[in-house]
Write a structure and sequence with these properties.
Largest sheet: none
Strand content: under 5%
Shape: globular
Number of strands: 0
Length: about 40
Amino acid sequence: TFWVTDEQKAEISAFAAEHNTTVSRLIVEGLELRMNQG
């Protein structure tokens, strides 16, 4: 299960806005990073 804190949600939203990227894509990329690190 993927979950983030409210603070992380704000950071993700800001990052997405700055990079014109969808939050859903960032979540997918984040999951891939977690899986690679795990």
